[in-house]
Amino acid sequence: MVFEYSRVEAEEVTEEGARGVRVRWLIDRRLGAENFAMRMFEFQPGGHTALHRHPWEHEVYVLEGRGVLLSGGERHELREGVVAYVPPNEPHQFRNVGSSTLRILCLIPAAGCAGR
Amino acid sequence: MVFEYSRVEAEEVTEEGARGVRVRWLIDRRLGAENFAMRMFEFQPGGHTALHRHPWEHEVYVLEGRGVLLSGGERHELREGVVAYVPPNEPHQFRNVGSSTLRILCLIPAAGCAGR
Question: Over chain B, what is the mean pLDDT?
Fold first, then answer.
C-alpha cells in the first residue's frame, strides 16, 4: 500500500485544550497495521495540543515548521529533522511557534489507537 | 528525549544483497521504546536493499529523493511525502533511482528489533 500523505483526509483535533491542530491517520488498522499507527499532525501558527499525558509513548519526527515540545519539564525546540521520544505517562504539549505550518509525524502503539 | 537525527550514527547495512545503504536507529530500546523502533535509511544513488521478506511489517515515510519500492508484485514510485505500508511476510525491496540521496523513515515493531 503506497500513497501520498495528502490522500488521507486531515481531521480537526477536537480534544479539549487543543487548538488549530489537524491529524491524518496515515497508517493504522484500516491498512492492517496491528502494532502501531503513523499519524501526521499539522499545527497552524499558534496551534497547540493540550498539555496532557497518557499511558502510551510517542515517536516523533519533525517534517517542517518551527515548534516547541514541552516534555519532561523542559522546553525543546522543534524544526525539520528533529526526533522526539515521549515516554509513557509523561506530560507533554506540542506548539507551533512559527509563522507557517508545523508538520510532524507522531507514531503510537496499538494501545493508544482506541477506536481506530 | 529530543535530538537532531544527525546525532545518531549512520551504520552501513551489511545484509547480503544490500548495497549503498546506511541506517540510523533513531528511537529504539536504548531510549526505552519497547513497542516499535524508528529507523532512518539513506540510500546512495543506485543503492538498494535486498529483495527480502520477514514476519514483521514496515511503516514508511519518504523524506527526500527518488526511489522505487517493489512490494506486492508491483513497482511503486517513492518521493517526498509518500507513505508505504509493507505487510508482514511480503517480499519487498527499496531502491534509489535518483541522482541524490534517498532518505526514508522505516519503522518496525519490536518483533523485528532482535539484538537492538
Answer: 97
Within 8 A by CB and 6+ apart from A20, the residues are A43, A44, A45, A46, A47, A48, A96
Shortest Cα distance, chain B CAs vs residue A107, angstroms? 9
A71 → chain B, closest CA residue: B1
Residue appearing with cell numbers 502494532: A35
**Does B2 contact A83 at a Cβ distance shorter than 8 Å?**
yes
- Establish whether this prediction's ipTM goes over 0.90: yes
* 8 Å CB contact between B45 and B96: yes
Q: How far is CA B10 from each of CA B41, B43, B44, B102, rounded to the nearest angstrom? A: 8, 11, 13, 14
Phi and psi torsions of B5, nearest 5° = -55, -35
Residue B86 to chain A, least CA–CA distance (Å): 7
Q: Which residues between 24 and 83 in chain B have a beta carbon less than 8 angstroms from any beta carbon of chain A? A: 26-27, 31-33, 35-36, 38, 57, 59, 61, 63, 69, 71, 76, 78, 81-83
C-alpha cell at B68: 522505487
Could you tell me which residues come within 8 angstroms of residue A23 by beta carbon, excluding any fewer than 6 positions away?
A: A10, A11, A13, A39, A40, A41, A42
pLDDT tens per residue across span B11-42: 999 999 999 999 999 999 999 999 999 999 99
